[in-house]
């Protein structure tokens, strides 16, 4: 495997991933915000079940319901450590990393219990997941944000091509010190932030729909849509899957062998 230049002070990496991916069947579950509908999915039918983040905060459910639902999801992860993937959403980050990365919907009354639950299980949560050229994150990765991120972290590459382990890099940044981790939570002007571009937790659809990465098939939540929606480019795409406000549906991905 080819190792790319590193900029992180400890343990950073950019590897080419194994391209010999056998057929896999994946299920993504997006932006639950306390909803228990994920329990309707038969996870035995899938090789991987990827929760796209935003387990917390709600206009409908109370603190107890949100906490219990998150606890059940964490328990599912413990029971299926390799099958279940838990990604971080912008609403989760403010409890996981309190008092940083605040966003609307924050519940002061839920903070103590949610922060404690996230803290005890922090190692179970990650920024991104990758299978072949499929990249899963809460909000999506844009070319402009990634270029900025690579410069800031000392990983300056001309472009991300097929086989590039981008999820590995983003997850490593999340494990690093605050000056690297904070880049992941950049909030652009479209979402009321002061950063030039939104990162993979906060990027607005107006950013990702016009500047998504080539060489990757991205699957994201974050932005409510009435139905699954995919935008295609010459060698990449991005699919928006946050439909639970209007219907109970989960997005499937089949990766052929």
Automatic annotation (TrEMBL):
Pfam families: Metallophos (PF00149). Signal peptide: none annotated. Transmembrane segments: none annotated. Residues 24-213 form the Calcineurin-like phosphoesterase domain. InterPro entries: Calcineurin-like_PHP, Metallo-depent_PP-like. GO terms for molecular function: hydrolase activity. This is Putative phosphoesterase. It comes from Spirosoma fluviale. The lineage of its organism: Bacteria, Pseudomonadati, Bacteroidota, Cytophagia, Cytophagales.
